[in-house]
Amino acid sequence: GQPDTICHAVVGETVVLPCMTTPPGELIFSESRLYWQINEKIVHFFHKGRESLKDQDKRFRGRTSLFLDQMKYGNLSLKISNVQLLDNAEYFCIYKQDEDHQTKKSKIKLSVLAPPRTEETPFPSGQSQTSSRSPAETPRLTVLPLSLHLLVTLGLWHL
To answer: Main localization of the protein (predicted)?
Structure first.
């Protein structure tokens, strides 16, 4: 089905994937589990009142965290720092309470964009790009003078 929420982030940013449950009072985490996952990969796991990250997917190590002080009020959101292009995926927030076997599941789509390119970046030739030329014309304009220069240089070489 469709994701419940769509989040956007740029590479290098920190993003919060929202996941809320409406608790009847405070949640009791000693008797529950919270999984954040992509398909079968564990992104973050919280079990019996604490984080359990030994089975966490390697590329998320050290980059995920929960809002531990807000969890008992139903905030199960996941914070991912230093977002990477590979983080672009559909995430599942799965909350299971052991005593009543109730499972709450939501799907959050994270759309990751490459960082915007800065205009100050010099081109290999040392020239900055001017906006008056279209990208399709640029190679022809730069190759032609270079070719003439080479022909002149080669012509002079043979004299």
So the answer is: membrane
Closest listed residue to residue 101, CA positions, set 32, 30, 39: 32
Terminal CA-CA length for the chain: 75
- In the chain, where the domains are located: 5-110
Q: Which fold has domain 5-110?
A: Immunoglobulin-like (2.60.40)
Mean pLDDT in residue range 89-112: 89
pLDDT in tens, 13-60: 999 999 998 766 677 778 889 999 999 999 999 998 899 999 999 999
Q: Are 74 and 22 within 8 A, CB to CB?
A: yes
